[in-house]
Design brief:
The complex is a heterotrimer of chains A (about 290), B (about 260) and C (about 270).
Chain A: H1 34-56, H2 67-80, H3 83-115, H4 117-132, H5 139-146, H6 150-174, H7 178-186, H8 191-228, H9 233-243, H10 247-275
Helix pairs in contact in A: 2-10, 3-4, 3-6, 3-8, 3-9, 4-6, 5-6, 6-8, 7-8, 8-9, 8-10, 9-10
Chain B: H1 3-8, H2 10-31, H3 39-52, H4 56-87, H5 89-104, H6 111-118, H7 122-146, H8 150-158, H9 163-200, H10 205-215, H11 219-247
Helix pairs in contact in B: 3-11, 4-5, 4-7, 4-9, 4-10, 5-7, 6-7, 7-9, 8-9, 9-10, 9-11, 10-11
Chain C: E1 2-10, E2 17-26, E3 31-35, H1 42-50, E4 57-62, E5 65-66, E6 74-77, H2 89-93, H3 95-99, H4 104-117, H5 133-146, E7 151-155, H6 163-179, E8 183-188, H7 191-197, E9 200-205, E10 210-216, H8 232-251
Parallel strand pairs in C: 3-8, 3-9, 6-7, 7-8
Antiparallel strand pairs in C: 1-2, 1-4, 4-5, 9-10
Helix pairs in contact in C: 4-5, 7-8
Classes of the chains: A mainly alpha (about 290), B mainly alpha (about 260), C alpha/beta (about 270).
Chain lengths: ~290, ~260, ~270
């Protein structure tokens, strides 16, 4: 077998060490080559599909859809009827509006709480409580306040996303190296300059950690709101297909949600790497 | 006694703000009774539900039952799968794409499918709890198993430890902090999962109380399970922190939220 | 005791050779230091002897037996201590015996004896995170000596310590070396340390790693109870090694080598 250094393109939290470093151990074997990785992935995927197809052909179509039937549904919903795109657009519109608002407000409040101790003392119990509370439990209350309206969805997405951003921003701001702040002080920087040139960049890794958590919770918020209150978008699609036992169709919005979630998570990671080339913490992600 | 100093102390500030919030809320609620309930009413509702109607304890017990069973399954499976993925390359390659995809996806989207497959009983609640909690546990255990300090592995190998000894004396203890991070995230997600299940499909337990009081606009009663849930969620995280401190006496446990 | 024959090592198939035809014999009870600039392969060589790396070609034998991997007759002391943070000092020191399957009571008794010898009895139940760097490395030394190895391998063991602690531990190491018949292979960046501790100093050069010259150090032992630095032999050897290494550094000028005579700071690899 030929030694191939670090050909694995996937998630590897361990950095590749220089070739001549004495601690470097070349990883050997087929499973560490690009071909090996893709062989395993493709074989697994094909096997999964085949087993699924065989199993599904013996079960009621209302209970379980075969991959072939799901493929037909995908074609129907994306090309023939093309209703999926509208649903995605609806859900994403709400997601981005609520999520964007959550980031802006969350960073602002988190910054204030991190810089001014009295504010932290006053607000922290409520923020912690609302952060810990499963957001879905607030839906009936929001229905009473907003009615069954698109505002409800926006509010839910916002509430799902804002608290992780506040908490992580605050932690980041409080964690800024005191010696870096001293650099600002000796150059007589104003509070505003301190925040923009030192505090925010130093807190950025934490803020991004918060945004990552917020994204996953905001996604849940959109889908929950669409499934339980205002039947629209991808969540609404799921409910409609489920009510009519159109199981093959039901898989399509689910797969779409999966695809959207994975894409957005990947996009965020990419953005993080671009915006913080100096930080390598994203290599050792801790789950959200 | 210097009143000003007491009021500006951390506890004093918190108490003042709490009193302020309660007073403003009470005033606002009394002026707009159709919009929101207010603290005194919520307190009365708590007493009524908890001690007169005896609605809280049975509902909460139902929720706790599904939560505990589901979380126990998720923790056991999740840790085992996480270690297998972290140590066995083939398992990693096979499972990684699916674990990553499910991890990123809101599990609530799966609820209608699960209803088709397992019905709306206890099994549904447990299934949703498992699916909610297991992926953060898998991923964090996996990262822990992968990021064990190579120098410590060297130390173990230098003393001629075999593969199994390396696993038990270096890899497993080294990944405990990660494992607990996974359990902490997992338990929070498990709680969300059980409430989702109880509110959307199973209609039982604490979730049912929320749905029921919401439907009849009984905001005073509605606040009771909501407040209990929030406090319970905080308590769960504290329990995991406590267990982590007990399990890792050598480490300073940082509270990451 | 230790016989290294024609060892070559390169990383990866196309990598440049890190060690080229390296041979060295160390007698029983001898204290040999390897010194050279970063990248000269001294740590790689030590790891090969320890069995943590395999040589591309060549052989290593300990007490006449070919060494094919980690074994009970060798022990390693690491630069960054590599103590297990989740074990107390005592449990760390007992690690090697635990791996060998010794009962808890017996291994802890033996580990405790070494901790006492190294002045650590009060810290036996502390975790590494609770004790100073110097104490941590004492635990590292205890962990290595508890298994009663024939060969002790030390990879810049004092490189991460402050100057005073380092000097103190150098003295203790000499005492230990004298009270046992231990054979020691010692990697260091510091000329002063090498000359102070060793019977023989091997000066290595880079690209590829190889022996440039050997120095026999005949200074009277024990060396900790007189001012060995005042001896003319000390100054002569030190001066020669320094000029050799200076020439090596001229080829690879990116790595500063610090003269540690005054307890200066070592560069960490």
């Amino acid at each position: 077998m030929t030694p191939t250094p670090a050909a694995h393109p996937g998630r590897s939290p361990i950095r590749i060490s220089p070739l001549h470093h004495p601690h470097h151990r070349p990883r050997r074997g087929f499973l560490y080559t690009g071909t090996g990785v893709w062989t395993v992935r493709i074989v697994t995927f094909v096997a999964l599909i085949v087993v699924w197809q065989l199993y599904a052909s013996g079960v009621s179509r209302a209970l379980f859809a075969a991959p072939s039937a799901i493929l037909e549904s995908i074609i129907e919903l994306t090309i023939t009827e093309a209703t999926l795109w509208g649903a995605i657009a609806t859900s994403m519109g709400a997601l981005f509006a609520g999520f964007g608002l959550a980031i802006v407000v969350g960073v602002f409040i988190g910054l204030l709480m991190g810089r001014f101790r009295p504010l932290e003392l006053v607000l922290d119990p409520y923020v912690s409580f609302l952060y810990a509370l499963p957001t879905i439990a607030l839906i009936p209350l929001l229905v009473i306040w907003f009615g069954i309206d698109t505002q409800l969805r926006l509010a839910l997405v916002f509430l799902a996303g804002v608290f992780p951003v506040i908490i992580n921003t605050m932690a980041g701001v409080k964690n800024v190296d005191g010696e870096l702040l001293d650099v600002g002080r000796v150059t007589c920087a104003s509070e505003r300059q301190m925040v923009t040139t030192i505090v925010l960049p130093a807190a950025l890794p934490f803020i991004f950690a918060g945004i990552r958590v917020a994204l996953s919770q905001a996604l849940v918020g959109v889908i929950v709101a669409e499934m339980t209150a205002i039947i629209t978008g991808l969540g609404g699609m799921i409910i409609r297909f489920a009510n009519f036992f159109q199981t093959a169709n039901l898989f399509v919005p689910i797969l779409a949600i999966m695809a959207v979630s994975v894409s957005l998570t990947t996009l965020l990671k990419w953005l993080e790497r671009r915006l913080m080339p100096w930080d390598h913490r994203h290599l050792e992600e801790e789950g959200a | 006694m210097n009143v000003g100093r007491i009021l500006s102390s951390p506890l004093g500030l918190r108490l003042m703000s709490l009193v302020g919030v309660v007073v403003v809320w009470e005033a606002f609620g009394r002026l707009n009774p159709r919009v929101a309930s207010y603290p005194s009413e919520i307190g009365a509702a708590f007493v009524q539900l908890g001690f007169v109607d005896d609605a809280l304890v049975p509902a909460f017990a139902t929720t706790l039952h599904g939560l505990v069973v589901g979380f126990a399954i998720a923790a056991t499976l999740g840790i085992a799968i996480g270690f297998a993925m972290g140590r066995i390359r083939l398992v990693d390659l096979i499972l990684d794409p699916y674990v990553s995809a499910f991890y990123a996806t809101p599990r609530i989207a799966l609820v209608p499918l699960l209803v088709l497959w397992v019905g709306i009983g206890f099994e549904l609640r447990v299934t949703i709890v498992v699916l909610s909690a297991i992926f953060p546990i898998i991923i964090n255990t996996y990262i822990g198993a992968k990021s064990v300090d190579r120098e410590l592995l060297d130390a173990g190998r230098a003393f001629a430890a075999n593969g199994w000894q390396l696993l038990t004396t270096v890899v497993v203890p080294g990944s405990i902090p990660y494992l607990f991070a996974g359990l902490r995230i997992g338990v929070a997600r498990a709680l969300v999962g059980i409430i989702v299940a109880e509110m959307t499909a199973a209609v039982t337990g604490t979730g049912r109380l929320i749905i029921q009081y919401g439907r009849f606009f009984e905001t005073d009663k509605l606040f009771v399970p909501i407040i209990i849930l929030g406090l319970f969620s905080i308590a769960l995280a504290e329990v995991v922190y406590f267990l982590q401190r007990r399990a890792t006496p050598w480490a300073r446990v940082e509270r990451i939220r | 005791m230790l016989d290294i024959q024609h060892v070559d090592k390169s990383f990866g198939q196309e990598g440049p050779p890190v060690l080229d035809d390296f041979s060295l014999a160390v007698a029983e009870g001898e204290f040999v230091s390897l010194i050279g600039p970063s990248g000269c392969g001294k740590t790689t060589l030590l790891r090969i002897v320890a069995g943590l790396l395999t040589a591309t070609s060549g052989t290593v034998a300990v007490a006449g037996v070919p060494s094919l991997g980690p074994s009970r007759d060798k022990a390693v002391v690491f630069q960054h201590f590599n103590l297990f943070p989740w074990r107390t000092a005592l449990a760390n020191a007992a690690y090697g015996l635990e791996i060998q399957g010794m009962s808890r009571a017996e291994r802890e008794e033996r580990a405790m004896q070494w901790l006492v010898k190294l002045g650590l009895e009060r810290y036996a139940h502390h975790y590494p995170g609770e004790i100073s760097g110097g104490m941590r490395q004492r635990v590292g030394i205890a962990r290595a000596l508890v298994i009663e190895p024939k060969l002790l391998l030390m990879d810049e063991p004092f490189g991460a310590l402050d100057a005073l602690t380092r000097e103190h531990l150098q003295g203790e190491l000499q005492r230990i070396a004298e009270s046992t018949s231990l054979t020691i292979l010692f990697v260091t960046h510091s000329i002063d340390e090498a000359v102070y501790l060793s019977d023989r100093v091997i000066v290595m050069g880079t690209h590829p790693g190889r022996i440039i010259r050997e120095f026999q150090v005949d200074l009277r032992r024990p060396r900790y109870d007189y001012n060995f630095r005042a001896e003319p032999q000390y100054a002569a050897i030190r001066g020669e090694i320094w000029s050799l290494l200076e020439r090596e550094l001229a080829i690879t000028p990116d790595e500063p080598l610090v003269d540690a005579t005054a307890g200066g700071v070592d560069t960490r690899s």
